[in-house]
Amino acid sequence: MVLFKWMKKPIHIRVWFAVVGLGFLFMGAVFKDRPIAYSAGNEVVVRWATLDETNIVKFEVYRSGGADKPFNYAGELKPQGNNSTYEFRDQAVFKTESGFYLYKIRSVFSDNSAIDSDVSFGVSHLSSTAVRTWGSIKAMFR
Predict the structure, then answer these.
(1) For residue 138, what is the DSSP state?
(2) Where are the beta strands (DSSP E) in the chain?
(3) Which of the 8 DSSP states describes residue 22?
(4) Below-70 pLDDT ranges, the chain
(5) Is 130 helix (H, G, I), strand (E, B) or coil?
(6) 46 CB-side CA count, 13 A
(7) Which pLDDT does position 18 carry in this prediction?
(8) Taking a C-beta distance cutoff of 8 angstroms, is the pair 72, 92 a contact?
(9) Domain limits, the chain
């Protein structure tokens, strides 16, 4: 409600934002939920679900080794059509050091334009070499 000195009655101002169906507009595709990433053994799994994929020819996944590091191409998935769920398995991450990784998704359209996600999402991942080393240390004290 807004009331200025010159107004005799208050007025209601409504602020609208883009909501499509039950999802939200995120980097060119309409997603049901915010994408997530989680560590699963020797890989990191990146998951997302879409509502609308009009004119999208592929989804590219990018990984960064931290907030101050650049994003590098990790792989891609082809679109499956509206209302689809995607799961990208980053198996190259186990070859790197353990740490916190950020991921983002790029939507590539049929006219070769692309939109990067403005929100990156992260995961803490323990590499397989660190897991084996920790297991070896525990075995020494049994």
Answers:
(1) H
(2) 19-20, 23-26, 29-31, 36-40, 43-52, 56-64, 71-77, 85-90, 99-109, 114-116, 121-125
(3) T
(4) 1-30, 94-98, 118-121, 125-142
(5) helix
(6) 25
(7) 33
(8) no
(9) 32-140
Length of the chain: 142
d(CA 69, CA 119): 15
| 35 burial via Cβ count (<10 Å: 0-12, 13-18, 19+) | buried
Name, in order, each residue with C-beta under 8 angstroms of 71's C-beta and a sequence gap of 6 or more: 62, 63, 64, 102, 104, 120
Nearest to residue 14, comparing CAs of 2, 3, 6, 22?
2
Q: Strand pairing of 71-77 and 56-64?
A: antiparallel
Q: Are 90 and 74 in contact (CB under 8 A)?
A: yes
pLDDT of residue 33: 75
The arrangement of secondary structure in 32-140, i.e. its CATH architecture, is: Sandwich (2.60)
